[in-house]
Amino acid sequence: MIRPILRFGDEFLHQAASPVEEITPEIQRLVDDMVETMYAAPGIGLAAPQVGVPLRIFVADVSGGHGHGELLTFINPEFMERGGTQREDEGCLSVPGFNASVMRSSRAVLKGLTRDGRELVVEGSGLLARCFEHEMDHLDGTLFVDRLRGLQKDLIVRKIRKLTRSGKW
Ligand code: NI
Description:
Elements: H1 25-40, E1 45-47, E2 57-60, E3 72-83, E4 86-90, E5 100-104, E6 107-113, E7 119-125, H2 127-139, H3 150-165
Antiparallel strand pairs: 1-2, 2-3, 3-6, 4-5, 6-7
Bound molecules: nickel (II) ion.
């Protein structure tokens, strides 16, 4: 089932999510819905708070569904290592229509549980490392817009306020 994606400005997106205590059938259904919602958007990553569930879960597929075996589900993810830097344009399904360059690690190793409760460790570089940091930010209540400074941030926030006022957000 495709779930509605919350947008920047919704207070829910700015709250830290809680760890999953047990992987129940409901949690697995949520994961399946998140995957369907991410691909339908289309996007390369989606965190549970974006669909209004305050739990530490995200799904990602940096191939956008065009590759094989690249779909990742992380439940209760934690960084094991991070290093290097990269600065690239970044977007978010909760901030549709906006992009900005954000500084991220160029390499990140993430540990978590799969949909079936198995331990998963994945080393990401480039886009995948960026995706990991972006989705981990969502679990801590941070959007990429929150990482911007000065004019770059003001411009996006002002445009979103305008869209909100005219009922287009
Ligand atoms: Ni996002």
